[in-house]
Design brief:
This protein is α+β, with helices and mostly antiparallel strands and about 280 residues long. The chain is built from five helices and ten strands; from the N terminus they run αβββββαβββββααα.
């Protein structure tokens, strides 16, 4: 089944699906760029690794005042011998576990010198919520921005906190930032919403180079088609990231037109009131 949305597919933002989409989209961008950049540059797939605590787990502790559960009582013969109350049954708790995170990204490097020219990042959910993932990515981002190399930052996730930009109050579902090393602190922001086609954008290189244009929409469509995401996406359910009423109605009409019975809009409506005969 063909890719059903004109732009980003909100169902692919699901936590179960996004890691695969992220990996495959990184690979498709590399495959697309490599023949266009040869022989001056090469595209390297890199992996950032760190350990963090599973933010979905709960730290359920027993408060210090649990000592009150060991009380002293006296028996019926009024002796002065203290008897400990029975120890209560243990409570099952869940503790946060360390999780190893692997995040792929791309680097365009000059052949021969290995000089870093451009970094291409596709944001993950951990980059957009407080914690080690955001901290680690922000440190890498600041390192790139402090250098003369270029940065392309692709955010296809509606949930979470967007990466910081000064003087920008534009609200959008998705964004692509193209930041050239020789033009900072200024950068080009491509802001778009659920109903929009993902805009193509140029890959920044050195000033004397011809810059290839990345058609991310076409690459995403190919990932969806080649790797059979139509077989695993359930369009009868709300996307995990949620939709506004207007966006849900738009998506519902679109999916119905394509023969996918989504029920998105109906699921957001309150059930009709039942009149009770008086």
């Amino acid at each position: 089944m063909a890719y059903p949305f004109p732009g980003m597919n909100p169902f692919l933002e699901d936590a179960e699906l996004w890691p695969g989409v992220h990996h495959l989209l990184i690979s498709e961008i590399a495959r697309f760029l490599s023949p266009q950049l040869r022989p001056k540059y090469r595209v390297a797939v890199e992996v950032r690794m760190y350990e963090t605590t599973d933010e979905n787990s709960l730290l359920v502790g027993i408060p210090d005042v649990i000592v009150k559960n060991r009380q002293t009582v006296t028996d019926s013969t009024n002796t002065n011998v203290a008897v400990a109350a029975p120890t209560p049954e243990p409570i099952k708790v869940k503790i946060p576990m360390p999780v190893s995170i692997r995040e792929g990204y791309l680097e365009v490097r000059e052949v021969g010198t290995e000089a870093l020219v451009t970094t291409i990042e596709i944001l993950s959910p951990t980059n957009k919520r407080p914690g080690k993932g955001r901290q680690t990515y922000q440190e890498k981002r600041e390192q790139v921005l402090a250098s003369r190399s270029n940065l392309v930052e692709i955010d296809l996730l509606r949930k979470g906190e967007a990466m910081p930009m000064m003087g920008n109050d534009i609200q959008s579902h998705y964004r692509i930032l193209v930041c050239r090393g020789d033009r900072r602190p200024y950068a080009d922001l491509y802001a778009f919403n659920l109903t929009d086609i993902i805009p193509p954008f140029p890959l920044p290189l050195r000033s004397e180079d011809t810059e290839p244009v990345i058609d991310l929409q076409t690459l995403l469509n190919e990932v969806y088609d080649i790797y059979g995401y139509d077989l695993v996406v359930d369009y009868s359910q709300q996307p995990v990231s949620g939709l506004s009423e207007a966006d849900a109605a738009w998506a519902d009409a679109l999916l119905r037109e394509k023969g996918l019975q989504s029920g998105l809009f109906r699921s957001r409506q309150k059930p009709p009131r039942t009149e009770v005969p008086g």
